[in-house]
Amino acid sequence: MTRRSHTTSTNLSFRMGLPKKKKKLKQPRGSEMTYKDSGVDYGALDPLKIVCQNLAAQTRNNIGDTDVFELASTRGESYYALELPDRYLVTVTEGLGTRNRVAEIAGELTGNAQYYFNMGYSNAATAFNDLTTSGGRILTFSLHIATGSAAWMKNPRFMEAFAQGTKKACDDARCTWGGGETSTLRDIVLPNTAVLGGSAFGQVVDKSSLVDSSRVSAGDAIILVASSGIHDNGITLTRDLPTRLRHGYNTRVKGGGRFFEELLIPTTIYAKMIYALRKGNIPLHYVMNITGHGWRKLMRAPQPFTYRIKKLLPVPPIFPFIQHHGNIAAPEMWGNYNMGAGYAVVVPHKKLTAALSIIKKAGYQAIHAGDVEEGKKQVLLEPIGVEYEAGSLSIR
């Protein structure tokens, strides 16, 4: 499991967004920042997703002349499943977002190709982590790169590192890298960057073990599994922070590295953990990848349950740094960032101890954080006094 796979230059001069006057920073600069103000508006994105889901569902009969059928209950999940006579096939398409923009800047100013390795790894991880919420085995990965100019690909060290990062992610997820698409989209993508994404394809051989929302029950235990850091969500907001920082991206994060280093720590891949839980015969009632919408994702299942969190994992240094310098309210932070918990697993209480033991042996840090309860649909984060009502998550 890749954690802090990066190296740094000790004499790095990385001063984007320097203020004209240097003075001691005591208070966060500027007004309160929100993800919406950075340009990512779930209020606009989510309704489009729902429209697409509704229209997509109307295409299910287009494959009615085959022996393959869609599993309608998986629409709105992190993955999509097709049913064959003897198994389920599961698919995911995901994108890295804007995190590679930080890696590109870091690579240009330091000459360090490691940041491209990290982005190749993290790009594949986004798809793998969504696919394994099905409880299934990943089989293949297809890479997608769209650049604004061929110049993006002309540094062979960077491109080799990116490809090696992608391969390492596939090795860690135990899948084959099947190919992909590379295109140059002048006037669509900016010339000094790229849009990165990919698709993963897998299977669930034991059909009774497919994980979907119907399995969640009151009394289930919620296990939170540690992230390596920010992962791949909320980066757009963080790219607005350097102008508020004395040393821009080169600002030291208390308890961690420099700001850009913390942003580029590779995303944790959780496939090994899911495989181990399956091998250990742990019933998975639900699995959530805590990415977009942050901790609101805990109530992704449509049933009206309360998800009560009583204990939290340690919060990596990057998050208090972002919250302080962005002057960001706690509900905004926890509603968009993973805050140290990259994955959540819901299991029957009687299997809790066994599940935690297996997760630890697989190399992951995890805790019994709370429980699923009867009641209205909501997430209660009791240690920090934050609540999310059902209406704050509209993705179905």
Tag the structure with descriptive keywords.
7-stranded mixed beta sheet, alpha+beta, 6-stranded mixed beta sheet, 396 residues, single chain, globular
Q: Summarize the amount of helix as a percent range.
A: 25-40%
Largest sheet: 7 strands, mixed
The average pLDDT value, as a whole number, equals 90
User: What's the helix count?
Assistant: 10
Helix and strand composition category: alpha+beta
Shape: globular
Can you count the beta strands?
Answer: 13
Instruction: List segments where confidence is low: pLDDT < 50 over at least 5 consecutive residues.
Output: 1-26
- Order of helical and strand elements: HEEEHHEHEEEHHHEEHHEHEEE
For the terminal residues, how far apart are their CA atoms?
A: 32 Å
User: What value does the Rg take, in angstroms?
Assistant: 21 Å
Give the SSE layout.
Blueprint: H1 42-57, E1 69-70, E2 80-83, E3 88-95, H2 99-110, H3 114-131, E4 137-147, H4 156-173, E5 176-184, E6 194-204, E7 221-226, H5 235-238, H6 259-263, H7 271-279, E8 286-289, E9 305-309, H8 318-325, H9 330-334, E10 341-347, H10 352-361, E11 366-374, E12 378-381, E13 386-389
Written overview of the protein:
It is a single chain. α4 (156-173) links the parallel β4 and β5 (176-184). The chain is α+β, with helices and mostly antiparallel strands and 396 residues long. It is 27% helix and 21% strand. The model is unreliable at 1-26 (pLDDT under 50). Strands 8-10-7-11-9-12-13 form a seven-stranded mixed sheet. A six-stranded mixed sheet has the order 1-2-3-6-4-5.
